[in-house]
Amino acid sequence: MENKLPTFDQNFVESLIPQRFPFVMVNSIAEYSETQLVSGFEIKEENIFVQNGTFQASGLVEHQAQSVALHTGYKYYLLGKEAPTGYIGAIKTFEAIQLPKLGDKLTSEVSIINEMMGVTLVDIVTKINDEVIAKSQMKTVVM
Q: Which of 1, 90, 102, 120 is the Cys-Cys partner for 115 at CB 3.0 to 4.6 Å?
């Protein structure tokens, strides 16, 4: 399977992460490097984190964590290996400046700060139309 970036192929993106519907919070990859990834996600009405037309902060955290998982999954895809399962080890900081609404398209930039022995420290910035709506720093752990 060959996939060039950017890709909006939902099946391909889902093949790179362990989550499955209805818990998938990423649907595109715009950019990838060893130290960065840009993911995307469109807020739809059937999303489990949407309440009264608003995507909740818990959904933003999950979207950001899945963006990190997408980085790992794409890295392993390029190596021709199956990606390991990971989880959030710690959320150092999280700030939701604005909650997205139905139809909003999120873009998240993942920056790898440090990666050692299966633990990755990342900064994540989520935007809508180039306006920052959420920021976090978290550690993820792969098994």
A: 120
> Could you tell me the pTM of the whole model?
0.93
Q: What is the pLDDT of residues 70-127, one digit of tens each?
A: 999 999 999 999 888 888 999 999 999 999 999 999 999 999 999 999 899 999 999 9
Name the token pair of 128: 């809508």
Neighbours of 14 (CB within 10 A): 17
Nearest to 106 by CA among 38, 31, 10: 38
C-alpha span between 69 and 18 (Å, rounded)? 8
Q: What is the DSSP letter of 97?
A: S
Question: What is d(CA 38, CA 40) in angstroms, rounded to the nearest whole number?
Answer: 7
List of residues 6+ apart from 23 with CB closer than 8 A:
48, 62
* Cα-Cα end-to-end distance for the chain: 26
Left (φ > 0), alpha (ψ -120 to 50) or beta: where does 11 sit?
alpha
What tokens were used for 101? 């609404």
